[in-house]
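Per reviewer request, we include the raw input and output of the structure prediction for the construct analysed in the revised manuscript.
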Amino acid sequence: MSDVSHIVLAEDKLPDSFGPPNNNSWYGASLEGSVPKYAVEIKGTYNAFYNSRWENVNGIWLQEGSWGNVVHFGYGVERLLDEDRVVGDLSVNKVISAVYK
C-alpha cells in the first residue's frame, strides 16, 4: 500500500465528480503517524483545516491548480513549515502557525 494518504481531496480520485473539491472544512482532524505518502493531498480550492493535529506526518501536497486552501494552527503545524513538509505553491495557499520566525 504505497499510495496511501490520510485525506485526499482531488477530482481525479472522486468518481462522477463535477469539478475539483472545494469549500470543505476540517475541524480538529487528528492526522497522526506516518503514512507512505502525504497526510493530506489537495487538488482543489478553498478547503480549510482548523486546529488539526499534525504529529509525525509526512506532510501536505498542494497539487498544481490548488489555491485558496488554508491550514490554521494546530499541534505540530510549525514542523510542516520548518522541515519543508509542504509541497506546492504557498503563494496561493496558506499554512498559518502560532510560532513566527
